[in-house]
Amino acid sequence: MPDIISNTSCLILLTKIQQLELLKSLYKSIIITDTVKAEFGENIPNFIKIKNPNQEFSVKSLEQILDSGEASTIALALESKDSLVILDDLKARKIAKNLGLKITGTLGILAKAKKLGIIDDLEKQINELQRKGIWISESVINEIRKINKTTN
């Protein structure tokens, strides 16, 4: 099983809709860096492990174009033989993809949970995120609706 390495946004968004435990249901454990832990600012459940990248140079290089949490997350993923990186920021996702990393985001996690029957209504979760002030593009919402229909 690959290392599941998450940036801060996923933790914050899933916490806002009271779905942080989805990460445990889907992946058993995930890894975050100390930087992500500090950005999250809340106690982390025991299924979330802390690990930091060995190459500080990689982090500093990535911090030239990304925020610290995204930089440390991508740097750690680059050191892993097999990883899945959870990123929501478009710029960070593009960089991670260009570096050959496998990526998903919070919405991808919700979609996977729906496909596996862990959550019943994907659209309800998306609506809840929007009620909490999260902007989601119309094209993404349309894709979510397709997933929601095919798994009902």
What features would you describe in this structure?
55% of the residues lie in helices and 11% in strands. The protein is mostly helical and 152 residues long. The strands form 2 sheets. It has a 3-stranded parallel beta sheet with strand order 1-4-5. The longest helix is centred in the last third of the chain and has 13 residues, at 138-150. 34% of the residues are buried. The model has no long low-confidence stretch (mean pLDDT 91).
Characteristics of this structure?
152 residues, mainly alpha, Rossmann fold, three-stranded parallel β-sheet, two-stranded parallel sheet, 9 helices, 55% helix, globular, PIN-like_prokaryotic
Question: Could you provide a short overview of the structure?
Answer:
The protein has 152 residues and is mainly alpha-helical. Helices cover 55% and strands 11% of the residues.
Tally of helical runs: 9
What fraction, in percent, of the residue positions are helical?
55-70%
Runs in which pLDDT lies below 50 for 5 or more consecutive residues are none
Q: What order do the SSEs take from the amino end to the carboxyl end, as H and E?
A: EHHEHEHHEHEHHH
